[in-house]
Design goal:
The structure holds 2 protein chains of 2 kinds. Chain A is of the alpha/beta class. Chain A has 6 helices and 5 strands, in the order H-E-H-E-H-E-H-E-H-E-H. Chain A is elongated. Chain B is mostly helical. Chain B has 6 helices and no strands. Chain B has helices spanning 11-18, 27-52, 57-74, 77-92, 95-126, 128-131. The longest helix of chain B is centred in the C-terminal third of the chain and has 32 residues, at 95-126. The two termini of chain B are 22 Å apart. Classes of the chains: A alpha/beta, B mainly alpha. The A-B interface holds A 32-36, 38-39, 42-43, 46, 88, 117, 138-139, 141-142 and B 12, 15-16, 18-19, 24, 27, 30-31, 34-35, 37-38, 65-66, 68-70, 72-74. Chain B: Functions as a two-component phosphorelay mediators between cytokinin sensor histidine kinases and response regulators (B-type ARRs). Plays an important role in propagating cytokinin signal transduction. Chain B: It is found in: Cytoplasm, Cytosol; Nucleus.
């Protein structure tokens, strides 16, 4: 009689390597100030995040492939977990960038956090209404970044666990079927 | 931080120091270097705008907004205070106030630069173990 393979031996239940590890969040940071770019990059690295920093909203859109010049094909694998952008920037503001991201079908689900040195309530309201995840007053604190990271990681872990659980169910389902068939 | 720095730098500077570790022992000095390079550029732009005599208060305020922003990020409290005053004069359209306050901005900025140069010199002499605060 042939041995029935246990679920653990199936590739589908073991192979979660294709899933992004829930550990390293990739953050895109946008700020026109060179000092603030250095600072936010360090905050994020200390918080164990992968960081990409750009100096303008235009460059952020280029990076995401939303500037209309590139086709979206090359950007399928781009995994950004969070966008943090300064509000006041020359050219396109952080608010305008937020709107463009929320209009995009590819990136609208990515949380966008606005940073500003000015505590202006109508500004905060406008950003939150447009779908900003959070509004942080500058200078940003390490505690703020860690809080964001923790809540995002919880969300990622849930997704990761759901996929893993689903695969385990699929594998054990096949196992039961094979056992019943006595193959 | 030392008595000579009191009043010149606020908690934000200490936050920057907290971000240093064995792998990045010069982070604060790197930030300071960037700050002084960037602020020199802004000071120059404001100087030129003021020398022209045509007071474009929007433009001046814009420059100062940037200057104030980076000064805040490094914890330069006295410079920040003077920047705020300058912006107030811009909002009021007070040219004389702007000129006067800008001299103060430059003075505080120069003082801070000297103090930080001295501070980093001492830190380098003390050695990496003294300056790195964060444990892994």
């Amino acid at each position: 009689m042939a041995e029935v393979m246990r679920p653990e031996k199936f590739d589908i239940s073991n192979d979660t390597s294709s899933l992004a590890s829930p550990e390293l969040l990739h953050v895109l940071a946008v700020d026109d100030s060179i000092v603030d770019r250095k600072f936010i990059e360090r905050l994020l690295k200390v918080s164990s995040c992968k960081v990409t920093v750009v100096d303008s909203a235009t460059r952020a859109l280029q990076y995401l492939g939303l500037d209309g010049d590139n086709s979206s094909v090359g950007f399928q694998d781009l995994k950004i977990n969070l966008i943090m952008t300064d509000y006041s920037m020359p050219g396109m503001t952080g608010y305008e960038l937020l709107k463009k991201i929320k209009e995009s079908s590819a990136f609208r689900e990515i949380p966008v956090v606005i940073m500003s040195s000015e505590n202006i309530l109508p500004r905060i309201d406008r950003c939150l209404e447009e779908g900003a995840e959070d509004f942080l007053l500058k200078p940003v604190k390490l505690a703020d970044v860690k809080r964001l990271r923790d809540s995002l990681m919880k969300a990622e872990e849930r997704v990761f666990k759901n996929i893993k659980h689903k695969r385990e169910l699929e594998a054990s389902d096949i196992y039961s079927q094979l056992k019943r068939a006595k193959i | 931080m030392g008595k000579c720095m009191q009043g010149y730098l606020d908690e934000q500077f200490m936050e920057l120091e907290e971000l240093q570790d064995d792998v990045n022992p010069n982070f604060v000095e790197e930030v300071a270097t960037l700050y002084f390079k960037d602020s020199a550029r802004l000071i120059n732009s404001i100087d030129q705008a003021l020398e022209r005599g045509s007071f474009d208060f929007n433009r001046l305020d814009n420059y100062m907004h940037q200057f104030k922003g980076s000064s805040t990020s490094i914890g330069a409290s006295k410079v920040k205070t003077e920047c705020t005053m300058f912006r107030e004069y811009c909002r009021m359209g007070n040219a004389e106030g702007c000129l006067r306050t800008f001299q103060q901005v430059k003075k505080e900025h120069a003082t801070l630069r000297k103090k930080l140069e001295h501070y980093f010199q001492l830190a380098r002499q003390a050695g990496p173990k003294e300056t790195a605060r964060r444990s892994k």
